[in-house]
Write a structure and sequence with these properties.
The chain is an alpha+beta fold. It is 26% helix and 19% strand. It folds into 2 domains: 2-49 and 164-219, no CATH class; 53-160, no CATH class. The protein contains 4 helices and 10 strands. The longest helix is centred in the C-terminal third of the chain and has 24 residues, at 198-221.
């Protein structure tokens, strides 16, 4: 906020850094800051910067309630459905934006490893049900599965959002983000007053954002990342070998 006040030339009384128009004590300062904070998170996440990812374990997802392959269990923030019945648990983590990767194991088999689940890119296939959930998709703000014939636990890596700042003294866990945040706050402050300088601060914020994104792009270029072809496998038709591979 001090950097934002410097950008908009808002000197506090007697040279104080607390500011006047953009002062910490202004009622709009914290909401304006959080607006900029949410925008920065979204831009960085869309560019592949993993500033906020977490693991969650979802316990005891009950078997599918119907033998019809077109019946799919699902989960959202309020309920889990076995395809027919609704349950109050388990549910998605409240800070989830979207799932990234899923693994599964037999529920209660705590000494057993989790095996990978496959993400379906073009809808869930209505295949013969097996013990495990064979694949998953994120659709309609729900996590959807093919039917499983046993209760399973799921380990999920997911993208989450960082909570809003509760005060302007909170620590923001995004490294080297001062230029981004200062210019975004300055842009929103100026835009709310119809200032022509808003576009200048937006351009500066965009450039600072690119500077934050570049290290992630370079880091990902250091490894070999080859996309697994959708529908690839060692045979024809659909099947699942219990270890995350399609047959």
């Amino acid at each position: 906020m001090q950097a934002a006040r410097a950008l908009v030339n808002d000197a506090g009384a007697s040279g104080s850094v607390a500011g006047n128009l953009l002062g910490d004590n202004q009622a709009f300062s914290l909401p304006l800051f959080n607006q900029a904070y949410r925008f920065a998170q979204t831009r960085l996440a869309n560019a592949g910067v993993e500033i906020a990812t977490k693991y969650a374990t979802l316990i005891n997802l009950l078997p599918v309630a119907s033998s019809d392959p077109s019946v799919f269990p699902w989960m959202n923030w309020a309920n889990y459905s076995d395809g027919v019945n609704l349950y109050s648990t388990p549910v998605l983590p409240p800070d989830l934006v979207m799932p990234l990767r899923l693994w599964q194991r037999l529920s209660g088999a705590t000494a057993s490893p989790f095996i990978p689940m496959r993400q379906a890119n073009d809808g869930l296939p209505p295949i013969i049900q097996a013990a495990y959930f064979q694949c998953w998709e994120w659709r309609g703000n729900q996590l959807n599965f093919t039917g499983g014939l046993q209760s399973n636990d799921i380990l999920m890596l997911y993208m989450n959002f960082l909570p809003d700042a509760q005060s302007l003294n909170d620590t923001i866990p995004i490294m080297r983000a001062e230029n981004v945040m200062a210019n975004l706050v300055a842009e929103y402050f100026c835009r709310s007053r119809g200032s022509a300088q808003a576009d200048m601060f937006k351009a500066e914020a965009d450039e600072a954002m690119r500077d934050l994104i570049r290290p992630t792009a370079r880091q990902k270029q250091r490894g070999q990342h080859r996309r697994v072809p959708y529908g690839g496998g060692g045979g024809s038709g659909f099947g699942f070998d219990g270890f995350g591979s399609w047959l």
